[in-house]
Amino acid sequence: MMRLGAFFFVSTGLFLGALLAALAGVSG
Predict the structure, then answer these.
(1) Reduced DSSP (H G I as helix, E B as strand, rest coil) percent helix, strand, coil of the chain, to 5
(2) Model confidence over 1-28: pLDDT tens digits?
(3) For residues 16 and 23, what is the distance between their CA atoms, to the nearest angstrom?
(4) Separation between Cα atoms, residue 16 and residue 18, nearest integer Å
(5) DSSP for 2-16?
(6) Is 14 exposed, middle or buried (0-12, 13-18, 19+ CB in 10 A)?
């Protein structure tokens, strides 16, 4: 259960990072 939570946390962080990078690329 803890491992699944860690995986979810990391995948969410990577997704948000990619999303912010995409938005920064589009805006700038």
Answers:
(1) 95, 0, 5
(2) 789 999 999 999 999 999 999 999 998 7
(3) 10
(4) 5
(5) HHHHHHHHHHHHHHH
(6) exposed
